[in-house]
Amino acid sequence: MKVDGHLTVMWRTGDGVRLQARSGRDVTAVWGDLALAGLGLPAGTVLDGEAVIVTQDGRISFEAAQARAASSPSRARLLASRRPAHYIVWDALQLPVPVGDVRARPYRERRAALLDVLSGLPADSPIQAVSATSDRHTALTWYNTLQDQGVEGLVAKRAASPYRAGYSGAWQKILARGNRRRPCRRLHRTSLTAPHPGRPTPRRDASP
Question: 90 or 181, which is more confident?
Fold first, then answer.
């Protein structure tokens, strides 16, 4: 399913966690609660996902995520204390050694590896894999019933598709509003080296 949040790449490095927005900006301080949760991942893990905020009524709020993303570090800490963030993981880009970069592997393999690496986190971790199914009836039920919870629609992926730069016809974003369908574009990178504060951020292959 497609949730309405802020696209973010999470690196678990040997000495901490880094988060980067689709603009290339380091947003670790803004999403500090997610960075703290990311310490539970094994070093060498790189994930692609969305930072989201869930309101008191259980709805995913893009406005709340925007407010957090645009806030100062001190304001972000205050907002986190009131409404903690969740990190909904779309994909695994890199796994700890000896596996390394998995972007060329089929989605079915990356998905299995993602679930395996996330299984080491506490059950109440805010880092969770996005819900996925290969059952058409289940997908249609999500599509028709979850809009009121802030779910935008679905992302359909071919099970054999690699993680490629730019738009890909193998990934289709199906938005609930107006039944629109369009190719999906992700945060693919040539380098999986985490950005460091005070250093230029490596450029992306393409913007999402």
Answer: 90
User: What kind and span of H or E run contains 114?
Assistant: helix 107-118
Write the pLDDT tens digit of every residue in 7-61: 899 999 999 999 998 888 899 999 999 999 999 999 999 999 999 999 888 888 8
Give the catalytic positions in this structure.
2
Dihedral of the alpha carbons of 103, 105, 182, 22, in degrees to the nearest 10: -10
Tokens of 155: 């992302």
Q: What is the pTM of this model?
A: 0.80
Query: Which of 86, 95, 97 minimizes the C-alpha distance to 45?
Result: 95
> Is residue 181 predicted with pLDDT exceeding 80?
no
Integer Cα distance of 174 and 47 in angstroms: 22
Beta strands in the chain (DSSP E): 2-3, 6-12, 17-21, 46-53, 85-95, 100-101, 127-129, 151-157, 167-175, 180-185
